[in-house]
Amino acid sequence: MWQEALYGPRGFYRRAAPADHFATSAQGLGTAGDLLAEALARLAERHGIRRVVEVAAGRGELLSGVARHAPDLELLGVEVVDRPDGLPAHLDWLVSPGGGRLPDELTGLTDTLLVAHEWLDVVPCPVVARSAADHPWHHVEVDRTGAERTGPPAIGADLDWLATHVPDHVGRAEVGLPRDTAYSDLVSRVDRGLVLAVDYGHTRDTRPPGGTLTGYRDGTQVPPVPDGSCDLTAHVAMDSLGADQLRTQREALHELLGPATIPPHDLARTRPTAYLHGLARANALATLTAATGLGGFWWATSRRGREHLG
After folding, report:
1. What is the Cα 215 distance to its own chain's centre?
2. 128-138, pLDDT tens digit by residue?
3. For the purposes of burial, counting CB atoms within 10 Å of the CB of 286, is it exposed (0-12), middle (13-18) or buried (19 or more)?
4. Domain extents for the chain?
5. How far is 56 from 79, CA to CA, in rounded Å?
6. Which region holds residue 83: left if phi is over 0, alpha if psi is between -120 and 50, else beta?
7. How do 190-199 and 109-117 pair as beta strands?
8. Gap between the Cα atoms of 19 and 222, Å rounded
């Protein structure tokens, strides 16, 4: 029901713009989104990349920011809705099936930075629970009202994933296998370039004991009812993806953009506009790199054809 609630004919993402319901690093936080776009433009330049493709592109907010910072880059957005109005003329668009599936046309990419910003957390996956560490895992089933019931036991690949990636103290979890498969598929679409998945998540040692599935509507966290009225999301098991590099957003942005430095106060007198711009930039970077907030997001990176990358 998770898939249908988000991506079905009346699914949440087919009717609602993400920015209307929650803020991310890419949109809804003032100048922070523009700063993230600048970081991606710098990442592309560093690796000699000529195209940026974003999966789960929302309404094109992040790619529009990249266009401002690097107007010569080719840009492509991938989303479950048709191309929104008002985007830069050279920003192309592909309609996606939704969930962990990608368009067939998205393949054989070269010299490309392929970005999935807060995509994996909305790739549906099984939810399981157990009453004690030595008890079997059972799937958690749910109806359209959100009422839960105990389903069949977890077996096969799901059970193997749980045994490998979930510690004994956890009693409820999301089986990350569909996210691992989606990330692997994402990486396979690039022949030469860089794949970057940015999301909130955890590693084995920090798996939340009670699971993370939740809902969002109108900027408020709500019960995860699969009726199409709200976003349904769960943290990503980042260490199971098999990425080449895993680091926090704080680490990544400090490396790409430097620290959040307040401009000298004297600049306010001699060049007030530059001072205000520098202050806004520092505040935005501090927001994006706050250790207990957005800075705790994860950047999972994989290189393809690395011998050709700068």
Report:
1. 16
2. 999 888 899 99
3. middle
4. 2-123+175-259+293-308
5. 5
6. beta
7. parallel
8. 16
Residue 54 pairs with which residues in a beta bridge? 77, 115
pTM of the model: 0.92
Closest CA to 129 of 230, 242, 194, 212: 212
**Residue located via tokens 């600049």:** 267
Q: Is 129 left (phi over 0), alpha (psi -120 to 50) or beta?
A: beta
Name, in order, each residue with C-beta under 8 angstroms of 27's C-beta and a sequence gap of 6 or more. Answer: 18, 19, 33, 58, 61, 62
CA dist 195 and 303 (Å) reads 6
Q: What is the pLDDT of residue 23?
A: 59
Query: Structure tokens of 49?
Result: 């990349």
CATH topology of domain 2-123+175-259+293-308: Rossmann fold (3.40.50)
Percentage of the chain lying above the pLDDT 90 cut: 79
Q: What residue type is assigned to position 37 of the chain?
A: A
If you write DSSP's letter for every residue of the chain in order, what string do you get?
A: -HHHHHHSTT-HHHH--GGGT---SSSSSTTHHHHHHHHHHHHHHHTT--EEEEES-TTSHHHHHHHHH-TTSEEEEEESSPPPTT--TTEEEEE--BTTB--TT--SEEEEEEEEES-GGGS---EEE-SSTTSPPEEEEE-TT--EEEEEEP-HHHHHHHHHHS-TT--EEE--HHHHHHHHHHHHTEEEEEEEEEE-EE-GGG--TB---EEEETTEEE----SSSSEEE--EEGGGS--SEEEEHHHHHHHHH----PPPTTHHHH-HHHHHHHHHHHHHHHHHH-TTTGGG-EEEEEEESGGG--
d(CA 130, CA 139): 9
Mean pLDDT of the chain: 92
